[in-house]
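# step 3/5: fold
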Amino acid sequence: MRQGLASAKWNNQLYLDTLNWVLSEFTINKSIYITNYDKYNLNIAEQLSTSINTFEKINSQFDLRDARYVFALHTDPLNAENHEISNISTYLSDFKNSAILAIPEKELGASLYEKINGLKLVLNSQEYPLHILGCLDPTYMIIFALVGVRNFDGLNWLKFYFNNKLSYYRNIYELDLIKGNVVDPRSYIINNCIYIDKLINDIEYSIATEDYSMFEEECSLLSELAK
């Protein structure tokens, strides 16, 4: 993107330089989402404070009144003993209408039961939208959305083939292609994009109408895990 820029190890200063360059070079006509620079080995309070300082620096230089600020947090351990979780809202009072919390899916817990409990802990202790990083698996998206998550990202759509609410190895796409069972015959990637778009629409419709008939199996699983 930048001509003549030598490669360098990613760090906080390079993050700031890159963000400054993007905001200076491009006209932002729509709301922009700005993610903080990840910092490991810090507690949640330190991560939030560092991110807030960075976002305030950016705000002082650019007119970002419609920006949404994604606070990507590393939360190990994510459990009831981690009292910092319940104090997140106190740190983000100045970002009340623009903050989004983001947590890596792998840090929610080892099992699905632990992940769901981790999500409930975060969702019940603060008021901000929750984004799950590295989670674009159809089954997990459905289950996590039913718990209360509304935002996801991930690279599974490049690695696997989506169908029937599941992720398959890509060779299954070719078998389904022969059988005529794919959403789109052009490629598994195009198939995945169309599939995820429809899945998100189905999830949003179910939540808006409180009609979960399309996801009875997932609702039943959540009920079993809650016992």
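# step 4/5: annotate
The first helix runs from residue 12 to 25.
# step 5/5: archive (pending)
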